[in-house]
Amino acid sequence: MTPFLENEPLIDGALKSELSALYAAQDRHYHDLAHIEAMLALAGDYRGLLGDPEAVEAAIWFHDAIYDSKAKDNEIKSAALAEKKLAGRAEAGRLDRISAMIVATATHQLPLFDDPTTVRDASLFLDMDLSILGAQPEAFDAYERAVRREYAWVEEPMWRAGRSAVLKNFLARPHIFHTEEFRRRFEPQARANMARSLAALTPAPPSAQSGFSA
Fold first, then answer.
1. DSSP letter (8 states) at residue 87
2. For the chain, what is the domain count?
3. Distance in angstroms (rounded) separating the CA atoms of residues 152 and 150
4. Is 1 a member of any domain?
5. What are the distances in angstroms from CA 107 to CA 33, 48, 112, 128, 207?
C-alpha cells in the first residue's frame, strides 16, 4: 500500500477540475457547482469552529459527485469515489471520517463518531448542506423549482406525495439543524419556508376548492 503524503492537499486543482465537470452535467439544476460553492463559502465562515477544515472541504466537494435522481445509492457511490480519489492523500481514519460524512447526507442524521471534534465537524457539514432550507423565500423557491426539474421524470401526484413526506419529516424533527449556530441563523426561516411549500403541495379540500363557505 502506498503511504499517504502528508503535504499533499486533499483537493488540488486537478481534482477540483475533475469534480467540477461532474457537477456541470446538464441534468443538474440544484446539485451543481453553485451548491458546492455555497457550502464552501459557509465552510469559510465557520472555519474557526472546524477541527479538520480540509476534511470537511473534501466532503463538500465529493458529497454530490455522483447524482442520479432515479438512484438510491448516490451517497454511497460518492463516498466510494472520494475514498478512491483521496487514497494516498490521507490516512485511513481520516478517509473513513470523510466517507461517513458523505454517506450521512442521505438522511442528515449524525454518524456515530466517538471523537467530539469529529462530531462537531460532521454537524457543521450537514448543516451547511441544508442551509438552503433557511434561505430567503425567493431563493428557497428557486431551489424548490430546481429540485423539481431534477425530478422531471416523476409525475405530479407522486412528486407532491414524495416531496410532502420529505418536508414533513424535517418539520417533525425537534431541530432541523444540528448546531446552535445554524439554528440561530437558519431554523426559523427554514420552518417557515417548508411549511409554506408543504401547504402549496397539499390539495385544498373540496369545500375550499368550490369557493363556497360552510
1. B
2. 1
3. 6
4. no
5. 21, 26, 13, 14, 37
Question: From CA 63, how far away is CA 84, in angstroms rounded?
Answer: 14
Give the number of other Cβ atoms within 10 Å of residue 19's Cβ: 20
With beta carbons less than 8 A apart as the criterion, state whether 75 and 102 touch. Answer: yes
Task: Output the domain CATH number for residue 113.
Answer: 1.10.3210
pLDDT tens, residue order, the chain (214 aa): 444 455 678 999 999 999 999 999 999 999 999 999 999 999 999 999 999 999 999 999 999 999 999 999 999 999 999 999 999 898 999 999 999 999 999 999 999 899 999 999 999 999 999 999 999 999 999 999 999 999 999 999 999 999 999 999 999 999 999 999 999 999 999 999 999 999 999 876 655 444 433 4
Residue 208 lies in a domain: no
Quick one: pLDDT at residue 42? Answer: 98
Count CB neighbours of 62 within 10 A: 28
pTM of the model: 0.91
Domain housing 155: 13-201
Residue 210 domain flag:
no
Please indicate, yes or no, if residue 212 is contained in any of the structural domains.
Answer: no
Distance CA 115, CA 149 (A): 39
Which amino acid would we find at residue 142? A
Q: Is 63 exposed, middle or buried (0-12, 13-18, 19+ CB in 10 A)?
A: buried
